[in-house]
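Narrative of accomplishments. A recurring question from our advisory board has been how the design workflow behaves on a single, concrete structure rather than in aggregate. To address it, we present the structure tokens for one chain from the evaluation set, followed by the sequence designed for it. No filtering or post-editing was applied between the two.
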């Protein structure tokens, strides 16, 4: 009887190591991200003019090749100049202080199809005092990132250069 108890584990081990099942379906090809996280950030640029005829706002269609999910994080940066041949970008909302003591903000809102860029200000602000440099030829870069990636990597969204490292 003792010999049977010794043979049971040996037989069980042989049965378990010799079993092989069918191969599963192949996985999806993906982008190898950091820390084993696969993601694809996407971006597009828009250059617009803010005028009184469009109520100091402009709506731009999100390109059809960009797939936006409800959980994605949408960030918008405004091109504020260049230094040493490199673009300088600032995250919206961005408050701008005028020489006469006023202030206004560049801001945005979005849905799955459109991004609206706009200038907002207190009701006492005189939009006629805006300089052409504050209204015309404003370039914005809209960046779409999976929120899980941003949270898992503790990404500083204020650092445009760091964010763009993760965008195709």
């Amino acid at each position: 009887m003792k010999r049977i108890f010794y043979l049971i584990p040996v037989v069980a081990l042989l049965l378990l190591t010799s079993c092989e099942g069918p191969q599963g379906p192949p996985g999806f090809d993906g982008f190898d991200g950091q820390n084993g996280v696969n993601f694809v950030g996407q971006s597009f640029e828009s250059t617009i003019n803010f005028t009184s005829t469009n109520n100091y706002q402009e709506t731009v269609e999100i390109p059809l090749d960009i797939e936006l999910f409800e959980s994605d994080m949408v960030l918008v940066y405004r091109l504020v100049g260049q230094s040493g041949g490199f673009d300088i970008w600032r995250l919206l909302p961005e408050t701008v202080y005028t020489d006469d003591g006023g202030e206004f903000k560049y801001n945005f809102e979005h849905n799955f199809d459109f991004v609206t860029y706009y200038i907002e200000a207190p009701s006492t602000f005189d939009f006629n005092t805006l300089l052409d440099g504050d209204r015309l030829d404003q370039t914005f870069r809209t960046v779409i990132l999976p929120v899980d990636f941003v949270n898992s990597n503790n990404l500083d969204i204020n650092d445009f250069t760091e964010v763009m490292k993760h965008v195709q």
